[in-house]
Design a protein that fits this description.
mainly beta; 5-stranded parallel β-sheet; 11 strands
Length: 107
């Protein structure tokens, strides 16, 4: 997904495969529920903000830019992963209150 303007997506997203979100030229905000077992691949130097519940077991891969977490469980269930690949340059920020059972393996 790539856009030349800032984008807010309110529709639910079901990840059944890998999905690249490129924020080179703009910021993207996800406010619709995310589910599924695919991978969000975050590329580009701008910000992807996930402000919704994620009920998936997916992987979020941060290749570059900023990943803003705006909701508890925004990165998925306890079995979901947050991946920082070798050579990546991503930064994670959060404004959400994380509950005690919100653990996330960092790979």
């Amino acid at each position: 997904l790539n856009s030349s303007n800032d984008v807010t997506i309110a529709k639910a997203i079901n990840l059944i495969g890998d999905g690249i979100i490129n924020t080179t030229d703009q910021m993207m905000v996800l406010i619709g529920e995310v589910s599924g077992a695919g991978t969000i691949i975050k590329q580009g130097n701008n910000t992807l903000s996930i402000n919704s519940t994620n009920n998936g077991t997916n992987t979020t891969r941060l290749d570059a830019g900023f990943l803003a977490i705006g909701a508890d469980n925004a990165l998925g269930t306890a079995t979901a992963t947050l991946l920082f690949p070798a050579g990546g340059s991503g930064i994670v920020t959060t404004s959400a209150n994380q509950s005690a059972d919100s653990t996330m393996p960092l790979l």
